[in-house]
Amino acid sequence: MTANVDHLTFDQLCELADAPADAAWSETWRAHAASCAECAEQLRALTSLAEESSRLPREVAPPPELWTGIRAGLTPRARAARALRRDASRWRLAAAVLLVAVSSSALTMLAMRGRAVANATASASRMDSAPATTAPSTGQLPAQLASAELGYARSVDALRRTLDERRDSLAMSTVETVERSLRIADAAIAEAREALARDPGNGVLQQIFTSNYERKIDLLRRATELAPRT
Amino acid sequence: MSSALSLVQSHDVADAHRRPTGDDMLVERARRGDVDAFELLYRAHSARVYALCLRLTGDAVQAVELAQDVFIRAWEALSDFRGEASVATWLHRIAVNAMLTKRRGDQRRSARVALADDDEDDARDLAAGSSPARDVGTAIDLERAIASLPPGVRRAFVLHDVEGYTHEEIAEMTGLASGTLRAQLHRARQLLIQALNR
Questions:
Q1: For residues A22 and B101, what is the distance between their CA atoms, to the nearest angstrom?
Q2: pLDDT tens sequence across B53-86
Q3: Is A209 on the interface with B (CB under 8 A)?
Q4: Are B35 and A82 a contacting pair, CB within 8 Å?
Q5: ∠ CA(A112), CA(A114), CA(A116), 5° rounding?
Q6: Are B134 and B141 a contacting pair, CB within 8 Å?
């Protein structure tokens, strides 16, 4: 059986190294690793790396001057200076999200236009030029993106819940800015999704789609940082 | 294995997460402005926090700055500490947040414009030999090799393989999808094995 199995990928070997020895799903992979010298060697290297990493010392003595610097940072004056910097960061947050949304939208348009030009060129070069057809709009994401979106959605939900819990500690103007920025981020995601539905194989659009999610998560994370626990 | 980091000291730290009673009292005193109590908290946890900062940054100078930031943030957020997690875990989370904030600041200053995940860029740069981590191939031991990893994949490796956090815990701390973290972790392992085999 194992003779017909291709070599395990590095990702599979990592999953195998992390899995409990009796995990049923890993049986086939383990059987292959047991009979394949190359995969066995990589698995051994991974296991060895994990063992050495777990044995690394967890404590490192800090230099003596560390406490001196911390002590100086606890004064009311130092705290006031940091509060000023935090206020400035609220404005930067809003500006950054707007910039991302605008550039993302423009890039989505460019990606679509680039693909359209390529399609038009290809069509024009065909001798028996049949009427150009557009890709069917299924409204569905490629499987890989759909799976990634599930992960993003879980992160968004968790951060959203945290933000909602701490909402009362934020100024109304900050809440409004964050909400407005989230709507812009959602619009950018929706726009990329719509474009992907028309052109699911477009790698640039796929990247824009995932980048938009990453940035929405970043926005939520930064907003929760601004909101202390109540 | 021997470590290249001369500051690394071996300690039994299995009980680092088990100091709730003493820590709670110190937190309560520090909340009322008692700097001496806060210094005791610092003395109890600074070695673990500094080790994490050192590995997250891969640089002793940046590690001092980050550790300083962590404890000042902790001082300011004492009123938010509800004791649901241990003080050690709470400080670790602050360290990861501070690291992420610092990294964003660095990126803004360098005016980087990138659509792709920055960490993926780092990994590509490393493969192309154009990143600051290009000397990873000369690493002679694990600590040095970890320090030479690109920041994103280093963070994933340190939190998962060294500190023992789960994918879900890291995802919660960093706000990244677990699939992204998994990819970063696998990339880190691949780079480390390559570095250590040379």
A1: 40
A2: 999 999 899 999 999 999 999 999 998 888 888 8
A3: no
A4: no
A5: 70
A6: no
Distance CA(B14)–CA(B105), nearest Å, equals 34
- Which among B9, B174, B180 has the least Cβ separation from residue A57? B9
Say what the alpha-carbon torsion angle A124, A125, A131, A132 is, to the nearest 10 degrees. -80
Nearest CB among A11, A55, A228 relative to B80 is that of: A228
Q: In this structure, which amino acid lies at residue B181?
A: L
Residues of A with Cβ-Cβ distance to B196 under 8 angstroms? 49
- Chain A: residue nearest B48 by CA? A59
Q: What is the pLDDT confidence band of residue A124, given thresholds at 50, 70 and 90?
A: very low
Task: For A209-223, write each residue's pLDDT tens digit.
Answer: 887 887 788 788 777
SS3 category, B133 = helix
**What is d(CA B28, CA B31) in angstroms, rounded to the nearest whole number?**
5
The string over B155-184, giving b where at least 16 C-beta atoms fall within 10 Å of a residue's C-beta and e elsewhere, is: bbbbbbbbbebebebbbbbbbbbbbbbbbb
Instruction: Tell me the one-letter amino acid at A123.
Output: S
- Measure the CA–CA gap between A188 and A25, rounded to whole angstroms: 38
Amino acid at A161: R
The candidate with the shortest Cα–Cα distance to B186, out of A13, A28, A148, A36, is A13
Q: What is the largest CA-CA distance in chain A?
A: 79
Distance (Å, whole) CA A42 – CA A32: 12
Q: Would you give the DSSP letter of residue A133?
A: -
Contacts of B115 in chain A (CB under 8 A): 107, 207-208, 211
The shortest C-alpha distance from B138 to chain A (Å) reads 17
Q: 3-state DSSP call for residue A89?
A: helix
ipTM of the complex: 0.71
